[in-house]
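Retro notes - structure team

What went well: the batch runner handled both jobs without manual restarts.
What didn't: labels got mixed up in the shared folder, which is why I'm recording both outputs here explicitly, each with its sequence directly above its tokens.

Job 1
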Amino acid sequence: PGQQEQHLHLMMQLLRPQDAIRLAVRLESARPRRVRYLLVVRPEEAGAEAETALLGVDFAHEGATRCTLGMVLPLWSDTQVFLDGDG
């Protein structure tokens, strides 16, 4: 597997069995070698939107075989976006 697939597999090992990654975004890092991701995580069962969380995951370098959880931010309510005008 490629590097991103390996990172995704390692990040999934941090989660509970009932959780699923809904979105994973690789972020730019202030440190040149560090690799960072922002994950949107939610349980797979229906009606679990109230348990959605943002996770910050760090890898020490591109080829690292383990990752650390650097941030957990629970999302307490649903967010709606409305575009108005020329937006």
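Job 2
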Amino acid sequence: ERVLELARRLSRGEALGTQEDEEEEEGEMCQRHREPLELFCKEDGALLCAICRESRAHRAHAVLPLPEAARDFEEQIQAGLQTLKDERDKLLELREAEMRRIW
């Protein structure tokens, strides 16, 4: 996301190295509390700061540290990717068999 945002700014001729850029480098911040977003709420699929975590809205929810949530999602994506690769291989084999049958 950061690379795309920098590319957009460059294409619009905007200057880089502003205070906003420095804040983005430190990590995303909670809009409400100006605290770093370090947690992930599994029920809501939302990034949370420590203060939001203790709010009524998320207190009873399962919350993970951001790196752990990222690993979980990466594992899910890799598993889905492997499934798609396996299905693609099967389809290619069927296509090849059908092409041989037609010839």
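One thing worth noting from job 2: DSSP finds four helices and three strands in the chain.
We'll revisit the folder naming next retro.
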